[in-house]
Structures are given as structure tokens and as C-alpha cells.
């Protein structure tokens, strides 16, 4: 019985390691900025952001704060 529990714990640990590694690989592959996520479509309803300086309007998929810098991020998919 103890062997079964040990094997189950090893399996769960291996799955967690694999998921963390895949998450890291995905963020590197898609150049997702590192930092604290302060906005995201999945977190909140979403607001339209505007820049009068650059005459831009849009709803980014994610906004990340890295240090004092705020970085909007838009996910793009290909068909």
C-alpha cells in the first residue's frame, strides 16, 4: 500500500513538472512579457484603452506591469 501511495505522489510530481515546463516553453515561444498581470480578458470584462498621443484605441488580451513599465499584449493566432 505504501508503494502505491509513493508511486502516485511521484506521478503527480512528474505531471506538475511537465505542466510548469510546458507553460514556460509557451511563454518563451510566444514572447509573452514577464511581470505582474494587471489586466486580462479572462480576469475581467475588459475596457477599451486609448492613447491620444498615438491615436490608438483597443482592448488588449493582457496588460503586464514589468517594473514601472506597462506592456499591453495581444495574442495572435494563425489559421
From TrEMBL:
Protein name: CRISPR-associated Cas4 family protein
